[in-house]
Amino acid sequence: MNIKIPLLFLTIIFVTTAFSQDITDSLYNSYDQFKETTLNNRRIKYNNIKALTDEYRQNSLFKVQKVGSSIEGRDLNLISIGKGKINVFLWSQMHGDEPTATQSIFDILKFLDSQQFIAEKEDILNKLTLHFLPMLNPDGAERYTRRNALGIDINRDALRLQTPEGRTLKRVRDSLEADFGFNLHDQSTYYNANRTDKPATISYLAPAYNYEKEINDVRANAMKVIVFMNSIIQKYAPGQVGRYNDDFEPRAFGDNIQKWGTSAILIESGGYPNDIEKQVIRKLNYVSILSAIFTIAKGNYKTIAIDDYNKIPKNDRKLFDVKIRNVSYKLLNKEYKIDLGINRLEVDNKEYTNFYNVARIVDIGDLSTYYGFETLEAKDFILVKGKVYPEIIGSIKELSIEKVNELLQSGYTYVRLLELPKKHIEATFPIHLVSSDFKIPNFNLGIGMNPTFLLKRNNKVAYAMINGFLIDLSADSNTFRNALIFR
């Protein structure tokens, strides 16, 4: 039987596909030309973006206006460009420790200010007016913390509007009567796409506006744009997209902004292998947000089926930094086969400009339904405790990576130093440093324990686990950030 497909439907498919391929590939491949190079790590401060905002204030293409102040008096600025009737409002860093999209916003601004993609940008800016509020919670950003200076989660202040930051967000949305709103966040790197070992690198949500999770035209438009954005991300991070829980939260801004008539699109930046500073994810945000802006300007999102929204896998939270499977462990003279789930927590320095890792064992047992960014099948290995090197070394200058590897292969995971580095808690070599009189605690494998041990095969040390970093002693190099210094 021959099935005739209407020509109009074929044309819609062709236009949408060609659009996504032509534009997004060009955006992706040219990204380095537009990356804002003054922002290269997650711990962005207010002064970092103030300097950039001041530059755009002097640029006649943009309109920059102060729209509010934080509790501690830092300016909240709105950067606008375009002359179209459709208003698109994007805000980031409502949570001070969620800055990935803040960097992407400044990449997009640099793109809009460039002399490339002229025809495409004219098309956008004739139909849309874009409004960016890059850092809604600058006080939280100074301390790299979720909440504002009062200790309030701004994203739970949509009803009471107790915070000046929340009041600003509401006032700007209302004054713009924004057609689309992009609510830009970071989520835990431990989220995965449901029932897969893929991290939820980007997660989307068209928030519900009532407990019944009804879908009106406003929410449907958000869903359609999300389906389009998902198709973009799948090209560059296949299988690494999740769909955030859409249970109605009456205090949340996203849910209320949807209720107030703006098609709200929540974007959560999660994890990506070996992307500690989320620079790969930053690029994916840049490409997908710009692509969404293009499709809103073109209006071709309107033909997308909202049923495809529910085909995006739900977010799950079953990822570890390291998962070790089926390792043998002896306890009270009996041998057990166990899995270990290990996470590396970030501890900020006093200036909130950098961090070191302190790892913990977060689960033990049957972890067959969990995954790891790094997974080791250890059925032929036995887990044993490390030893303290019996000699006292004068200073860290006497250590080298070759010397440390020899010590690890000999079963030592701690080294006593006569002179420990001052003002540091972290060690750059993959072995713990302790003072000459430090007493090493008893080795008790359990939840919350710092994962420091050895993995032996055929009575030979093959791997060392140092502060949650798995060191393959036969490899030329390993991914490693820091061990710890114990005084």
CATH topology category name of the largest domain: Aminopeptidase
Proportion of residues in helical segments: 25-40%
Looking at the chains present, what oligomeric state does this protein adopt?
A: single chain
Q: How large is the radius of gyration? A: 26 Å
The count of helical stretches stands at 10
Inertia-based shape: elongated
Unreliable residue runs: 1-19
Structural class, please?
Answer: alpha/beta
Q: What count of structural domains? A: 2
Quick description:
The protein is α/β, with parallel strands linked by helices. 27% of the residues lie in helices and 30% in strands.
Verbal overview:
By secondary structure, the protein is α/β, with parallel strands linked by helices. The chain folds into two domains: 7-316, Zn peptidases (Aminopeptidase, 3-Layer(aba) Sandwich); 320-486, no CATH class. It is built from ten helices and 23 strands. Strand 11 (319-331) and strand 12 (334-348) form a beta hairpin. Helix 1 (7-29) packs antiparallel against helix 9 and helix 7 packs across helix 9 (279-298). The longest helix has 23 residues, at 7-29. The radius of gyration is 26 Å and the shape is elongated.
